[in-house]
Design goal:
This protein has 170 residues and is an alpha+beta fold. It has one domain: 2-Layer Sandwich (Beta-Lactamase), CATH 3.30.450.150. The chain is 44% helix and 16% strand. It contains five helices and four strands. Strands 2-1-4-3 form a four-stranded antiparallel β-sheet. The chain is globular and about 50 Å long. The relative contact order is 0.18.
Length: 170
C-alpha cells in the first residue's frame, strides 16, 4: 500500500469518526440528576414551618425529592391529623405535574380539559404545593397544609424556598 493511499484511508477514517452523530440522551446507559441534600431539604422544611408560625398557623410541611419521594416531614404541635399526608400529597403533586398546586387547582376545575387529573391517585389540587428548581431542573417540591387557605400555605412554602435559594444557585 502506498503512503498516499494509507494517508487517504487514515483521513477518511478520521472524517468518519468525527462525522458520526453523538449518542442521544436516550441512548446513554446512565443519566445524572440533581436533588436537594437532606440538610438543605431540612432547612427548607424548618424555614417553611417557621414562616407559618410567624403568621400564626400550625401546619405540616413536606419536602419531596424530584421524584416525589418524601425527604422531610414536619408537623407542628397543633396541626390537624390530616395535615402530614396532605402536605406530602401537595408536594408530590407539584413535582409530578411540574407546576404549583395553586395553578393546578384552577386548571383542573370541573369542565376544564384537565379536570380528570383530580382522579389520579395521590394528586391533590389544593394550593400549598410548589416546585423547587435549580439550573432549570426540578430538584424538589415543598408542600404545606394547615393554614386557613391555600394562598396562606403557598406563602409559607415560598418563604421556605426563599431560605434555600442561595444554597441551590449554581
Amino acid at each position: 500500500m502506498t503512503i498516499a493511499r494509507t494517508t487517504a484511508l487514515a483521513a477518511l477514517f478520521a472524517t468518519a469518526l468525527t462525522c458520526t452523530a453523538p449518542v442521544s440522551a436516550e441512548g446513554e446507559a446512565l443519566v445524572e440528576f440533581k436533588m436537594l441534600s437532606l440538610d438543605i431539604a431540612g432547612k427548607a422544611a424548618n424555614e417553611t414551618l417557621k414562616a407559618c408560625r410567624g403568621m400564626g398557623f400550625q401546619v405540616s410541611v413536606a419536602v419531596v425529592d424530584r421524584f416525589g419521594n418524601l425527604q422531610v416531614l414536619l408537623r407542628d404541635r397543633f396541626a390537624g391529623a390530616h395535615t402530614p399526608d396532605t402536605s406530602r400529597r401537595k408536594a408530590w403533586t407539584a413535582v409530578s405535574f411540574r407546576t404549583t398546586t395553586t395553578d393546578l387547582s384552577a386548571l383542573t376545575q370541573p369542565g376544564q380539559p384537565q379536570s380528570a387529573a383530580r382522579d389520579i391517585t395521590d394528586a391533590l389540587m389544593l394550593g400549598g404545593g410548589i416546585i423547587v428548581e435549580a439550573s432549570g431542573s426540578i430538584v424538589a417540591g415543598i408542600g404545606v397544609s394547615g393554614a386557613p387557605t391555600g394562598k396562606d400555605d403557598d406563602a409559607c412554602a415560598k418563604a421556605g424556598l426563599s431560605a434555600i435559594v442561595a444554597d441551590i444557585e449554581l
